[in-house]
Design goal:
Helices cover about 55% and strands about 10% of the residues. The radius of gyration is 22 Å and the shape is globular. The chain has about 325 residues and is mostly helical. It has two domains: about 220 residues, HUPs (Rossmann fold, 3-Layer(aba) Sandwich); about 80 residues, Orthogonal Bundle (Tyrosyl-Transfer RNA Synthetase). A three-stranded parallel sheet has the order 1-2-3, with helices on both faces. The protein has a two-stranded parallel sheet with strand order 4-5. The chain binds tryptophan. Tryptophan binds next to strand 1 and helix 8. The site of tryptophan has 13 residues, from strand 1 and helix 8.
Length: about 325
């Protein structure tokens, strides 16, 4: 049987170059493998644990869908859907919550981090914690187990959540008989850290990102802000320690990258290196940017695509739910 690869995408802020290189690009490559069926979904109701502004919730949900589609996700090849279009997820989440010990949730890193912060500030330990946030890992387990997923590609911060899903599956299987496939996480190891404008890892929390779908003008402005050292034009520069080079190679063809490496040895100026980075990034992003704008201008079209994905996903989900309901004796 095919391996099932599944991952959820939370609607967060504006997608940046680091998100693209670190998560989107590898996930799209993984989906191309013929031996697996891939399900990628917008985890909108996970977003609701922190995103409680109707306009923003809606805009970000569409924006993240449009981003993936614009970058080449093929809905014929990947089952691409919105979590909240699959009611079975929420029924399963309840059933799973009944076989999950509260202690397991108390030990989840994300929740514990908030409790620790509250402790340090002398606040009640559960200040700012809603029940959705507390049981977040159970909803995520339902996402994963509903489709009998084998492999769950995630960032490092989500490894524990996949392990929790596996623990919950084992617990259910032990109580009610073999039902769920035990999922494993996978993390991209090959991916280099993508430097932001200040040289640290590109991250929203450092405020050093390059947005993916900004105007060419703004892209150029951002690139001009990348921090460089004071080696003057004409003197050799080390590509290995250059943020400009790290970004360049992610968007250039291998031959272009080699060419650029030579130019570094020959003492290309930082201004020139930035100009070349802009050229290569902008020519890569032109197509997706146009596609993104088109998609965002016709949200009904996004709805249609996601709904078609949900139709396929619901058919799969129904099979698991029939088994689950049977196992628990809900006849
Ligand atoms: N929690 C994940 C994140 O923050 C998103 C997510 C929700 C997810 N459900 C999932 C990831 C299921 C993998 C599988 O990034």
């Amino acid at each position: 049987m095919d391996r099932v690869i599944l991952t959820g995408i939370k609607p967060t802020g504006e997608v940046h170059v680091g998100n693209y290189i670190g998560a989107i690009k590898p996930a799209l490559q993984l989906a191309e493998q013929s031996q697996s069926s891939a399900l990628y979904f917008i985890a909108d109701y996970h977003g609701l644990t922190f995103l409680q502004d109707a306009k923003e919730f809606s805009r970000l949900s569409y924006s993240i869908a449009a981003t993936w589609l614009a970058l080449g996700l093929n809905p014929e090849q990947v089952t691409f859907y919105r979590q909240s279009d699959i009611p079975d997820v929420f029924e399963l989440a309840w059933i799973l919550s009944c076989v999950t010990s509260k202690g397991l949730m108390n030990r989840a890193h994300a929740y514990k981090a908030i409790v620790d912060r509250n402790d340090e500030s002398g606040l009640d330990k559960d200040t700012g914690v809603n029940m959705g946030l507390f049981t977040y890992p159970i909803l995520m387990a339902a996402d994963i187990l509903l489709f009998q997923s084998n492999q769950v590609p995630v960032g490092k911060d989500q490894i524990q959540h996949v392990e929790i899903a596996r623990d919950i599956a084992e617990e259910f299987n032990k109580k009610f008989g073999d039902t769920f496939t035990l999922p494993s996480y996978s993390v991209e190891k090959e991916i280099a850290v993508i430097p932001g404008l200040d040289g640290r890892k590109m991250s929203k929390s450092y405020n050093n990102t390059i947005p993916l779908f900004d105007s060419p003008n703004n892209l150029q402005k951002k690139i001009s802000k990348i921090k460089t050292d004071s080696i003057p034009p004409g003197e050799p520069k080390d590509p290995a320690t250059s943020s400009i080079f790290s970004l360049y190679r992610q968007f250039a063809m291998p031959e272009q990258t080699e060419e650029m490496r030579k130019k570094y040895m020959e003492g290309i100026s930082w201004g020139e290196a930035k100009r070349e980075l802009y050229e290569v990034m902008n020519s890569f992003l032109e197509g997706p940017r146009r596609k993104y704008d088109e998609l965002m201008a016709d949200r009904q079209n996004i709805d249609r695509i996601l709904y078609e994905g949900a139709r396929k996903a619901r058919a799969q989900a129904a099979l698991t739910m029939e088994l689950v309901r049977n196992r628990i004796g809900r006849c």
